[in-house]
Design the sequence.
């Protein structure tokens, strides 16, 4: 088991170490993920319901009221 | 009554469209090129010819660039669901969440595991295991697409769910009805096979560029041999599945079909427009202006496509708004189509049922709750019509839907001829000497992307105003946030995605210019 895990580790380690173009691509991926999850998600895309209500019942009430209030002469 | 800033709805729509269109630049190439490299590697495995290995590795490198740049661009769509479309996100409940969760798990475990073997495993694992990993990577990517398309198809044809007024959510009643809905199956096969066209056009175009530069002639010939056959197969299958999709649209979203064909007045033996220019003066379905300036149409074909019968009636926009035409139910029972006003009245009854049910629950009035719930359930199929102010809102943008649909079909038909010709000329060794064919091959790449994006525009613009067909319009689905915030993020996305696209193009072009020499990962 230990030997198998070690060989899997070596496989990935050597694979990453020998990358050339792959390093640039990984850099792009990491920068992209940072922008998406740290900048965009936190500062621009908060969970609309999650940031306003704690419980599921409160969220259901809010959406239910929205469904009723936005209609035309219900 | 709560008022909603219309520009908020439009900006939210525009932002979602922008994100989806950019995301879809990366996905079809992954799905198409992935199968092509798998076939190439299969040749290598069977023949042991090192040239096939070199060819596979070259295209695999380009596949890797596209995969890396495109990865996770779809997650932004999920951010938008939570922020901009929170009413929708809550309302759809686990129906949308379940396929997306399965997609996430499948994408992570299948793609991330086997793609590592695909790139790191050359000369480290057996040829057989490597080949299996390459195939499993693309099968994993295709199955990921399945779950996303199942979620999208449910929005076009909501089935297999039950609305719970206590939680204000739709709950999954029949997982298999959601997964195997005819809309989902047609959408999946049509989307995947049309992505094969993009992958094939990509390989043929770059091979043609090598030929124009008088480089890598053997690689180009062998690559075209596979890509042309695969492209032809993909185009024929896309035409077949496209017909299936059109039939489903006719049955489930007749307004979309009417917009796709610019059909304002319903017809028996309805004609299919092969080519047409819409009359720009037409501004409304009831203004009496002729819809076409020019058209070439084949009588009966639209009826055949919509109902599998040349002589049947296909309703136009006016019929769908005014109702009154004869319909056939699932079991062949004859009925009369409701007018938009009748549906709007039923929608209001459904919303009223929900309102009264909530009030009854608040004051513990069980009998009122029961009656109100029954009223809601009886009219729930028209729930979304309760939010329609003017019946004209029910007509999507006809010119955009019509032109994108016809552009998609015309380009698709062109690709049948193109791939057949490319394969034939490549076999006869005349492909390389005909410069016009090489330039046509280069032109094929942007055409394939335009065709693919047009398909999505037809699917999404044609179903407006619905986010969920007949159940929830966009103005109900959107969160009450400021339009300014959506505009800001729209600009941010436009910049971010453009930077990503240029990064991809720049790295891709550099690697194509290098060619298969000095291959490294």
Sequence:
């Amino acid at each position: 088991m230990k030997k198998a895990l070690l060989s899997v580790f070596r496989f990935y380690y050597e694979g990453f170490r020998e990358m050339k173009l792959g390093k640039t691509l990984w850099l792009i991926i990491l920068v992209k993920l940072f922008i998406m999850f740290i900048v965009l998600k936190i500062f621009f895309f908060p969970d609309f319901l999650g940031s306003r209500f704690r419980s599921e019942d409160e969220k259901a009430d809010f959406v239910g009221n929205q469904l009723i209030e936005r209609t035309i002469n219900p | 009554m709560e008022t909603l800033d219309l520009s908020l709805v439009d900006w939210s729509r525009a932002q979602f469209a922008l994100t989806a269109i950019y995301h879809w630049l990366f996905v079809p190439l992954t799905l198409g090129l992935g199968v092509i490299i798998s076939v190439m590697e299969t040749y290598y495995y069977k023949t042991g010819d090192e040239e096939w290995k070199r060819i596979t590795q070259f295209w695999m490198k380009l596949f890797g660039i596209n995969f890396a740049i495109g990865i996770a661009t779809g997650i932004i769509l999920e951010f938008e669901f939570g922020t901009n479309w929170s009413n929708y996100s809550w309302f759809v409940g686990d129906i949308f969440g379940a396929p997306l969760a399965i997609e996430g798990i499948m994408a992570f475990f299948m793609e991330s595991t086997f793609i590592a073997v695909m790139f790191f495993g050359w000369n480290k694992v057996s040829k057989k295991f490597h080949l299996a990993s390459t195939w499993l990577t693309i099968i994993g990517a295709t199955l990921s697409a399945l779950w996303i398309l199942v979620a999208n198809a449910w929005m076009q044809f909501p089935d297999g769910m039950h609305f719970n007024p206590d939680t204000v959510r739709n709950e999954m009643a029949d997982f298999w009805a959601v997964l195997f809905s005819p809309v989902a199956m047609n959408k999946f096969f049509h989307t995947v096979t049309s992505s094969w066209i993009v992958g094939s056009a990509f390989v043929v175009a770059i091979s043609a560029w090598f030929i124009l530069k008088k480089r890598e002639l053997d690689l180009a010939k062998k690559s075209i041999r596979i890509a042309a056959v695969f492209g032809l197969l993909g185009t024929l299958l896309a035409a077949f599945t496209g017909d299936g999709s059109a039939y489903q649209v006719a049955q489930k979203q007749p307004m979309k079909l009417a917009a796709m064909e610019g059909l304002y007045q319903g017809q028996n033996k309805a004609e299919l427009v092969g080519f047409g220019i819409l009359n720009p003066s037409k501004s409304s379905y009831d203004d009496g202006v002729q819809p076409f300036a020019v058209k070439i149409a084949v009588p009966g074909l639209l009826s055949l496509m919509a109902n599998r019968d040349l002589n049947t009636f296909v309703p136009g926009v006016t019929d769908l708004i005014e109702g009154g035409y004869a319909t056939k139910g699932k079991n062949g029972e004859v009925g009369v189509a409701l007018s938009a006003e009748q549906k709007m009245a039923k929608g209001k009854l459904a919303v009223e049922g929900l309102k009264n049910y909530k009030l009854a629950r608040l004051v513990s009035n069980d009998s009122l709750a029961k009656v109100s719930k029954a009223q809601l359930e009886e009219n729930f199929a028209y729930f979304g019509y309760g939010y329609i102010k003017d019946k004209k809102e029910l007509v999507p943008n006809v010119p955009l839907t019509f032109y994108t649909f016809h552009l998609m079909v015309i380009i698709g038909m062109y690709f049948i001829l193109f791939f057949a010709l490319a394969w034939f000329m490549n076999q006869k060794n005349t492909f390389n000497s005909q410069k016009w064919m090489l330039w046509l091959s280069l032109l094929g790449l942007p055409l394939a992307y335009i065709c693919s994006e047009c398909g999505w525009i037809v699917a999404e613009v044609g179903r407006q105003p619905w986010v969920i067909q007949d159940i929830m319009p966009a103005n109900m689905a959107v969160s009450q946030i400021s339009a300014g915030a959506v505009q800001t993020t729209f600009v941010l996305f436009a910049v971010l995605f453009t930077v990503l696209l240029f990064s991809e193009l720049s790295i891709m072009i550099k690697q194509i210019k290098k060619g298969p020499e000095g291959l490294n990962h």
